[in-house]
Amino acid sequence: xxxxxxxxxAAGFTSALxxxxxxxxxxxxxxxxxxxxxxxxxxxxxxxxxLGGSLALDKNIFVRGSLGNLDYNRNQEFDTVTIGVGSASxxxxxxxxxxxLDYGFAESESTNPLLDNIDVDTLTGSVMSRTWxxxxxxxxxxxxxxxxxxxxxxxxxxxxxxxxxxxxxPQFSVAANISRSFVGDYDTDSVGINARLQF
Length: 199
Prior knowledge:
Blueprint: H1 4-17, E1 31-41, E2 44-56, E3 61-72, E4 76-90, E5 95-110, E6 119-132, E7 137-150, E8 153-169, E9 172-181, E10 188-198
């Protein structure tokens, strides 16, 4: 039986093969988006939903942020907020290199006192490539280093990701993303989809 990651990746590559000829064009850094992800931390599964956006301040600098919710199956959920700033540089007529610094805050809610009011602060520096694979398919790869503090206990580690974005029209796209975090005692895997409206 195929898992979610295999299905999402296969769908993206099928779309890429069916796309039209490649044309040089700019990437947008002003958009709103919403998404859903299946998150696995050790043996715990959680569902994540979020709304976010980005605003280009000039040709190279942008700010971004999101609001979300991470809901565990063990009667615990986290409200999440992220804010960040980034810089995009053109590597070629098909690719951008994006350097960003993001801060995230999460606070738990639970009927179990041991799982309630847990604060998580995360600072992440990352580098991502955005590349036109075809005229309407964008591929991206990312790598970063995150520092995380959980109620006074801190740790750091690498964060890796990859994704494919399909543009149905120039302003609207849907993406599939996978990521893996090596921060703390437990690795975190995420498989998600999102829809974006750019300006």
